[in-house]
Design a protein that fits this description.
Helix content: 40-55%
Largest sheet: 2 strands, antiparallel
Shape: elongated
Strand content: 5-15%
Number of strands: 6
Structural class: mainly alpha
Distance between the termini: 107 Å
Length: 357
């Protein structure tokens, strides 16, 4: 009977090595592949004196590469050497090869960092963009008057509805441009700026879409409420409570009685001057101190709310308070009746805690 022929040891070793090599190449290809298949532009800064190796941790923190180890291995193998300091626009769907090619001597001429703080108005946004980006102020406001453009945005973003086309709204995108710090190319157009900011808003709102759809209030009403909460609540921990007060007032058919809406309706800054009786009684689509606005929200947002105010307006605290007041330290006091509210204000004044301009 013939015995089976056994593979010689060198052949065995060769097969093992080949299998290991195939396995390594598979892992290498996966680890140097793109982090995402979604098309998303990410601004990336390369500082003076940086090398392809030294920026690996920054690339990982920006979620542009899967593995620092395999990224560095790619660099060691291919030896790119034309990294320049500057700002780059990278895409999350780039693999390591594409990423390195994009970084290899392709710095943008100039990237500009622009910060929009929570609670600013569209007027503030327009002023900042005009001064930082050298875009004519008339072009910024004019974009909002382009009905085809606004319709295209409503078509592209689920949270923008026909409500923003109400003729009584001052600025259709008020409240919807997410306040944050952005990196814009010096040649970025106003349409691109709005898109980047709206994309950011979408990324924040998407996770709450289900909750918003279950609410008895529309997304436009929630964003309007969030903008009032942003202006009224002094502390982050009080935002949901303040939202609860305003919703209780709506449910009771009461006026919101919010001075910040009066200021916005009159196009006045909060620190510009005190409101007069005439101001408080004036009628427009925003002034919730006017008696005809009882049980109503303003026609639209009055500022650009931050995420905490938006979340508070989606999930307000359930209580039976209908009044609140904040002292000069920012602490908020909630009360149930008009007399309790009046007594609380008097108490704060006696204790020297009343806020005065």
């Amino acid at each position: 009977m013939k015995s089976k022929r056994r593979l010689k040891k060198p052949v065995k070793y060769a097969i093992v090595i080949l299998l290991l090599l195939i396995g390594f190449l598979f892992i290498y290809k996966f680890e140097t592949g793109s982090v995402s298949n979604k098309d998303s532009i990410i601004a990336f800064e390369v500082k003076e004196g940086s090398t392809f190796n030294s920026i690996s941790s920054s690339l990982r923190s920006k979620n542009l590469i899967k593995s620092e180890l395999f990224y560095k291995l790619y660099i060691k193998i291919h030896k790119p050497n034309n990294l320049q300091a500057g700002f780059y626009e990278l895409n999350s769907n780039m693999n390591v090869k594409e990423l390195v090619n994009a970084l290899n001597g392709n710095a943008k001429s100039k990237m500009i960092s622009v910060t929009f703080k929570e609670g600013i108005t569209f007027d503030n946004v327009a002023d900042i963009v005009s001064s930082k980006m050298n875009i004519k102020i008339d072009d910024i406001y004019g974009k909002l008057k382009d009905t085809k453009y606004i319709d295209s945005l409503i078509n592209d973003y689920w949270f923008l509805t026909d409500d923003i086309k109400n003729e009584n709204i001052y600025y259709s995108l008020e409240g919807y441009l997410f306040p944050d710090t952005y990196q814009f190319n010096e040649k970025t157009s106003i349409e691109e700026i709005f898109k980047i900011m709206l994309d950011n808003t979408k990324s924040k709102l998407d996770k709450y879409k289900s909750d918003i759809e279950k609410s008895k209030y529309s997304i436009h009403e929630i964003m309007t409420m969030a903008s009032i909460v942003e202006k009224e609540a002094s502390n982050s921990s009080d935002r949901a409570g303040v939202a609860g007060v305003f919703y209780n007032r709506l449910d009771s058919g009461m006026s919101l009685g919010s001075d910040v809406t009066t200021y916005y309706g009159l196009k006045l800054d909060l620190t510009e001057r005190d409101l007069t009786v005439t101001d408080l009684n004036s009628y427009n689509g925003y002034n919730t101190r006017n008696a005809s606005m009882a049980g109503k929200l303003p026609v639209g947002p009055i500022c650009m709310p931050g995420l905490e105010s938006i979340v508070a307006s989606i999930n307000p605290t359930n209580h039976d308070y209908i009044y609140f007041v904040a002292d000069k330290t920012g602490k908020t006091y909630f009360t149930k009746t008009s007399s309790e509210h009046t007594n609380m204000v008097a108490k704060l004044k006696r204790e020297g805690k009343w806020y005065e301009y």
